[in-house]
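Hmm, what's this shape?
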Amino acid sequence: MLKSVFRLVFGVALVMITLLGNAYPSAAVSLDDGSMGVLPFMGSLAGKRPTNLGVKDGKLSPCPNTSNCVISESDADPKHAIAPLAYSGDPAQAMALLEAVVNAMSRTKIIEKTDRYLYAEFTSKLMGFVDDVEFYLDPSTPVIQVRSASRLGQSDGGVNRKRIEAIRQALASASVVE
């Protein structure tokens, strides 16, 4: 009983901190399920899937004003800017490897994919926060544009940027990304 009360109080405190914008909701916390068990509201902090996702006029949607988003489009402000994934060789091979890398990452679900677009949801382990991550293979240049954004909160502790850099490194190890 005491353990359940603790979980509930702890969970409510984390939600309040997050809603006030002082937490890192999408931070990938590497705690074992051990003594924490499953929090009573697990999955209730996923938020709703944004309606502005996808490629419009050859571009991904811009980042919101919050600091929990990165995007590789050339007109991104410095706070949100990240380099696109440059590749050499066959575009289809680059997208296939990208899909394999994303699928191999923990708590990931691919929602949509085409020959030039990939959209995945990444869920944090502890609280179930969801980040929306998009990749668009630009047919005019040998790059894959990226956008990674948290659905909830104001900050992410750099998780979205770190995720894209980890994907870049995995692709570089396979000698597909330059």
Strands lie at 55-56, 59-60, 69-71, 85-86, 108-113, 117-123, 130-138, 143-150. The mean pLDDT is 77. The two ends are 55 Å apart (CA to CA). The CA atoms of residues 1 and 120 lie 38 Å apart.
